[in-house]
Backbone:
């Protein structure tokens, strides 16, 4: 809360939150698509690393933006946001960084 109202009521913040929501929703739909392909017994050797690369980048961007929105409070040890940031970095590295995912994707594209 700032100046007696929720920070989400400020246009600059609401636009950031909207962008974050768009990217999170896009990442979820990519994941649903990969899960559906897998359930159908289809190959998803290209789609799975695309989803991993995109969702890990979205996770980092979203958490970084959340930390900026919450200003200094987002960096405090008591804040769940700083833990989300550490988790986002770990998720990014686990099973291969974006660069590794891009290497896999480029090979699947025949490049």
Residues:
């Amino acid at each position: 809360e700032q100046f007696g109202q929720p920070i989400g009521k400020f246009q600059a913040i609401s636009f950031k939150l909207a962008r974050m929501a768009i990217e999170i929703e896009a990442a979820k739909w990519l994941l649903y698509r990969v899960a559906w392909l897998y359930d159908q017994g289809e190959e998803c050797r290209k789609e799975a690393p695309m989803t991993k690369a995109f969702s890990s980048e979205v996770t980092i961007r979203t958490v970084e933006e959340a930390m900026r929105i919450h200003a200094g409070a987002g960096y405090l040890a008591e804040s769940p946001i700083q833990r989300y940031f550490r988790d986002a970095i770990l998720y990014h590295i686990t099973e291969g960084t974006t660069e590794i995912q891009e290497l896999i994707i480029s090979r699947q594209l025949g490049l």
The domain at 7-108 is CATH 1.20.140.10 (Butyryl-CoA Dehydrogenase, subunit A; domain 3). The chain has four helices and no strands.
